[in-house]
Specification:
mainly alpha; 0% strand; 132 residues
Length: 132
């Protein structure tokens, strides 16, 4: 059924608390990675991607904090999220947004695979015609 306004507000507060908590953990891990980099160690590909994602999240946090700090500006947050869907740091994404992104990526990969299959089939036909 429908949730009361109080329940929705509490859920949103929990969502933002968890998002900030995850961002704090990611920032601590990224700081350790930067420390390792400064001391000459090499990062793995996975660590490098995590470090880049965390840095991007910290840069995205600046405009997001304006909405949190300025009074009554949080009411405009849904409007700006519709205009700029990538504005929130990755730790603030909901499950539905993550699933939607995964579906888009999968569809793009399927289209690419279909294109490559058609290209290979066309090349095979040409080669068969040339040799035949």
């Amino acid at each position: 059924g429908k949730k009361s306004v109080r329940q929705r507000v509490v859920e949103e507060l929990k969502h933002y608390y968890n998002g900030f908590h995850l961002l704090w953990i990611d920032t601590k891990v990224a700081a350790r990675m930067v420390w390792r980099l400064l001391h000459g160690q090499v990062l793995t590909r996975r660590e490098r991607r995590r470090l880049l994602r965390t840095c991007a999240d910290l840069f995205r946090l600046v405009p997001f904090l304006v909405f949190v700090i300025v009074p009554f500006m949080e009411f405009l947050l849904p409007v700006f999220l519709k205009l700029f869907p990538e504005m929130l740091p990755s730790t603030f994404e909901t499950e539905s947004k993550k699933e939607e992104k995964q579906k888009k990526k999968l569809n793009a990969k399927l289209e690419l695979a279909k294109f490559l299959q058609e290209t290979i089939a066309e090349m095979a036909k040409r080669n068969k015609a040339d040799t035949g």
